[in-house]
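Onboarding guide, step 5: your first structure request.
Type a short instruction followed by the sequence, for example:

Predict the 3D structure of this protein.
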Amino acid sequence: MGWLDELPVGFLILASLLLGLAPFVPEPHIWEKLKMLADGTLVRPIDIFDLLLHGSPWAVLLLKLVRMRQAASH
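The system replies with C-alpha cells like these:
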C-alpha cells in the first residue's frame, strides 16, 4: 500500500470532487448510480461501469483517510 501513502490527500479530494461528481447537471453521476443501485435498477453494463468510474476516486480517498488514521494511532 506504499502507492497509497505517496498520493497527496489534496489530489484525491480534487479527483473525488471533479471526477466523482461529474457531470454536475442535472445531478452527479455517482448520486444517480447509487440511487439506481438502491432501487435495484443498476443492471446495464454502462451504468455499472459509470458507478465504478465515478466511485473509484471516493473509494481511494476513503482508503487513504483510513490509512492516515491508522498511522496516526500507532
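Each response can be followed by summary notes, for example: The helical segments are 2-6, 9-18, 29-39, 45-73.
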